[in-house]
Amino acid sequence: MKNNFDAFDMNSIPLISKNIAFREDENGMLIFQIDTDEMYFISHAVYPLIELCNGANSCQDILDILRKNENSTPDIINNSFVMFVKNLLSREIISLL
Questions:
Q1: Average pLDDT per run of 10 along the chain, which is 97 residues long?
Q2: All domains of the chain in start order, with CATH
Q3: Nearest of 4, 20, 14, 27 to residue 58 by alpha carbon
Q4: Contact 93, 84 (CB under 8 A)
Q5: Please, which residues bridge with residue 22 across strands?
Q6: What is the DSSP letter of 7?
Q7: Scanning 36, 59, 60, 70, which has its CA 20 to 30 A from the CA of 79?
Q8: CA–CA dist 39, 57 (Å, integer)
Q9: Are 59 and 8 a contacting pair, CB within 8 Å?
């Protein structure tokens, strides 16, 4: 699996966009992108990860938390996290400071 760490600065601070609204669903969380009228569904397991995008944690901080709590290999965790952040960025759910 290719390492995607060079995709963005891991010291960047992810912050949930102001144009986002969350609503709990019995199966997870709904994310509303107000500017584009798009809606996304995430599981209850993923929502705490998005909550860490509060301006107080760097990408590296969040990745370190994941590494402590996941049983996968470091490469899988690293690449999954980078893909996750890129996905949130492309949907304008978060921005990087």
A1: 58 95 94 94 93 96 93 91 93 94
A2: 16-92 (1.10.10)
A3: 14
A4: no
A5: 31
A6: G
A7: 36
A8: 25
A9: yes
